[in-house]
Amino acid sequence: MYLLPRGEQRALVGVTLLLILSLLVRIAVQIFPGRDPAGVEEFTREARAIMAALARADSLDQVGRESLGPTRRSTYREGYSTPPAGIQRENPEPLNINRADSADLLPLPGIGPVFAGRIIKYRKLLGGYVTVDQLAEVYGMPGETIDLIRNHVFIDSSAIRKIRLDSASFRELLRHPYLEYEDVKALVEYRDFKGDISSINELKTNHVLYDSTLNKIDGYFDFR
């Protein structure tokens, strides 16, 4: 259930009191024309006292917030901005992005828990990162964040999980995010017709897939 901030709650109480007071005064004027009904002045003084107390409380609350400085909510939105300063390390060693876990990723500038989880999840789908530029394919990742972390990470190609093209099943090939159903169908049909596939250039020469797709998938095929 959503709760209003304290300042808005006080303002709502004050407005409600004023509305009630206004309604009572209108009714009293109609019932007792030419004179103030008993109790109205006292009620008015109490309402004014309550409003003054609310104003003082808001003032003190604001001073308290300013003395404490910005809150975590205002300085850090999970997954979309820089983590709290205490998490980051000075001059960290370059990070192996293909072997790092979520905790390892948090010191990187602009990376919070959400983005760290997405980087790991997409890495599993790919089988590892071939280039840092692939981080642009992580959902919601801003280009400026990639520029910030580019010099803080490196690619370990030995950690990439490659696909044995001569023996991979249809389902295994289809799991890779760079291959669509029609791509996999074309690969399997060509493999069944030709036998062993020697290189990515063979697939390009025979126009098995679009060159743009083959360029992306090249680092994930094992042609042994």
Tell me what you see in this structure.
This protein folds into three domains: 6-68; 95-159, Orthogonal Bundle (DNA polymerase, domain 1); 163-222. 52% of the residues lie in helices and 4% in strands. The chain has ten helices and four strands; from the N terminus they run αααβαααββααααβ. The chain has helices at residues 6-31, 40-68, 72-75, 102-105, 113-126, 143-149, 170-174, 181-194, 200-205, 211-217, and strands at 95-96, 153-154, 163-164, 221-222. The strands form two sheets. A two-stranded parallel ribbon has the order 1-2.
| Number of extended strands | 4
Mean pLDDT: 77
Low-confidence stretches: 59-87
**What is the class of the largest domain in the CATH system?**
Mainly Alpha
What is CATH's topology name of the largest domain?
DNA polymerase, domain 1
List the helices and strands in order: HHHEHHHEEHHHHE
Q: Give the distance, in angstroms, between the N- and C-terminal Cα atoms.
A: 59 Å
Task: Tell me what portion of residues adopts beta-strand conformation.
Answer: under 5%
Class by SSE composition: mainly alpha
User: Quick one: CATH superfamily of the largest domain?
Assistant: AF1531-like domain
Number of separate helices: 10
Biggest sheet: strands side by side, in what order? 1-2
Count of domains: 3
Helix content: 40-55%
Overall geometry: elongated
The major pleated sheet works out as: 2 strands, parallel
CA-atom Rg in angstroms = 33 Å
CATH architecture of the largest domain: Orthogonal Bundle
